[in-house]
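Q: My labmate handed me this sequence with no annotations at all. I'd like to see what the chain might look like in three dimensions before we decide whether it's worth expressing. Could you predict it?
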Amino acid sequence: MLGKIHLAAKKGTVKVMRIKPSELEAQGYTLLDALNHTELAPFVRKYLNQYTRTAVFYYAVNVLFFAWAVFSMFQARGAGWDDRIVHFCYGFALAFCLVPLHEFLHVLAYRSQGARHTSYGADWRKLIFMAIADQFVANRKEFRVIGLTPFVVISMLMIGLVLAAAPLWRITAAGVLFAHTAMCSGDFGLLSYFEYYKHRDVVTYDDPANGISYFYAKST
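A: Here is what I predict for the chain of 220 residues:
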């Protein structure tokens, strides 16, 4: 896999050097896609509609968490349906409040993989938010960690709250769990892209100055 391929000996140690975007073509990679950040939504939809394990998992887990939320509503005996629906709506509102945490977890994941220049981006008209690593070349394995970290961390937290909370607040936690998972469509769409081209050894990097993410693949 690409990303950490240069080795340099110094004082008896081996230092791992990351590849730079300017070195990709020399390493046998060609441009596969250039994704303008304003066009993220149609790009994500396209690859969530491909038959990949990632896309299947995304839709399946959404159905599962929605069913769990509905089940939690029926479990809240003694509460009126107005209260149950209100608490479910609380979950959607709180899911939006988790957006900063979600993107911060992406940044932490980027840094865990070696990125040093990270930032945040947003398209407020389309309610699209993103974490960006400037000129950081990530391979499929690294991007899997980057893409899944917020989903895993927040889902585990919410599952714990669903299991531990009082009946009405269990509905709220289940609502957060479902809404946040649905909002992870961008992450899963990009992961589905990597899986769709898994035979091409795809890598990606962000160019925040121009608002573009580039995807390169091994020449065939």
